[in-house]
Design goal:
Blueprint lengths: L10 E4 L3 H13 L6 E3 L2 H7 L7 E5 L7 H11 L8 E5 L4 H10 L3 E4 L4 H58 L5 H15 L4 H10 L12 H4 L7 H18 L5 H12 L20 H16 L10 H10 L7 H17 L8 H4 L4
Parallel strand pairs: 1-2, 1-3, 3-4, 4-5
Helix pairs in contact: 6-7, 6-11, 7-10, 9-10, 10-11, 11-12
Length: about 350
């Protein structure tokens, strides 16, 4: 038996008989363990355990005042339920009831007086082996949990990067600057903040909004990139991008993909119910889609598109205000007005770049 593998173990002896404490101390030291901490007063031992974390306690169960059972109860209240602390119960009572009572109180093993040194050391070795195995398993678990957190974080970053690149696939087909989706995302998040949505929902909108037009990857270039007004047939083709986007994003299990699907499907619905593809109205339209609808319209109006020139900020704000309660959710339009005013106060030169204000987001 290689007891030296646990030579540095912190061992504690609690017995109201000083001779027993000395006997067990000599036995442990002769076997190669370091000098144990001995107590003849169980109350003093209880105070010591408030701050100490021994690897093994040999505990006399029958002591005056605070007996071994009481000390075990106090010890259980101080330790986490998943902490394994070997307690070797020692008693002069050699019957099943005494053993059962000690084990149910929290002891991990039981030894009867008078004590045989060889038997005592065998019990000590076995309990310490379990103690240090449990410690190694806990350390391994912590390492594995750290690796899982790291890999999860890496996976999250990879997913976000994939989503951003997917948004760019659609964006670069009809936005030469490649900035439309970022502007819409930032403005959408600002509007969500202004509407006092929970921070986690604001962040989801910021991440999901760039995918609002991902369905445009399925629209032919001759329609998508046409300069000038659309014919009725072409307008119908363009409208298909909402359902195409929802189909591309459908079936996702993450909250982010579920919100992206909602936004793609419903960002062209109208507050008055005359939008597409499903004719939803009012609160039937997901709040994220109502927010992106306003942000998307604002950005489309104030920037050059293949089919139009850029409008001034004042013209765009006036046009959106005219659609308050018709095309757009009145509360979202009002939020746009407040955000716009706050941004003008921050930077009087402001046009359509929400960068300074958007710096407040995530």
């Amino acid at each position: 038996m290689d007891s030296l593998s646990h030579a540095d173990a912190e061992i504690m002896i609690v017995d109201d008989e000083p001779s027993v404490v000395r006997f067990l101390t000599r036995a442990l030291k002769s076997a190669g363990y370091k000098d144990p901490k001995g107590f003849t007063d169980p109350l003093e031992a209880s105070v010591y355990l408030d701050s100490a974390d021994p690897d093994l306690i040999t505990l006399d169960m029958c002591m005056p005042g605070l007996d071994g059972y009481g000390l075990l109860k106090a010890l259980g209240a101080k330790r986490s339920p998943d902490t394994f602390l070997p307690v070797l119960a020692i008693s002069a009572l050699d019957d099943f009831e005494a053993r059962e009572k000690a084990i149910k109180a929290g002891a991990k093993d039981f030894l009867v007086k008078p004590i045989s040194v060889d038997e005592f050391l065998l019990h000590v070795y076995s309990l310490l082996d379990t103690r240090f195995l449990e410690r190694r398993l806990k350390e391994t678990r912590h390492v594995l949990e750290g690796l899982v957190r790291e890999r999860t974080s890496e996976l999250g970053r990879a997913n976000l990067e994939t989503i951003e690149r997917l948004a760019r696939v659609a964006e670069l087909r009809d936005d030469a600057t490649g900035k439309h989706t970022h502007r819409v995302a930032r403005l959408s998040a600002l509007l969500a903040q202004e509407l006092h949505l929970p921070p986690e929902e604001v962040d989801l909108i910021l991440r999901a909004a760039p995918l609002h037009d991902v369905g445009k990857v399925a629209i032919e270039d001759e329609v998508l990139l046409k300069k000038g007004a659309f014919s009725a047939e072409e307008r119908g083709v363009m409208r298909e991008h909402a359902l195409r986007g929802a189909q591309l994003l459908g079936g996702g299990r993450s909250d982010l993909m579920k919100m992206a699907e909602q936004i793609a499907a419903a960002h062209h619905e109208r507050w008055d119910g005359h939008g597409y593809p499903c004719g939803l109205s009012g609160d039937e339209i997901p709040i994220a889609a109502r927010i992106v609808a306003v942000a998307d319209a604002y950005d489309a109006l104030t920037n050059v598109r293949p089919y139009k020139e850029a409008w001034s900020v004042a013209e765009a704000m006036a046009d959106i205000e005219l659609e308050r309660g018709a095309q757009f959710d009145p509360q979202v339009v009002d939020a746009l007005g407040r955000v716009h005013q706050a941004h003008l106060c921050t930077d009087p030169r402001s046009s359509t770049d929400w960068g300074a204000t958007a710096g407040r987001i995530g």
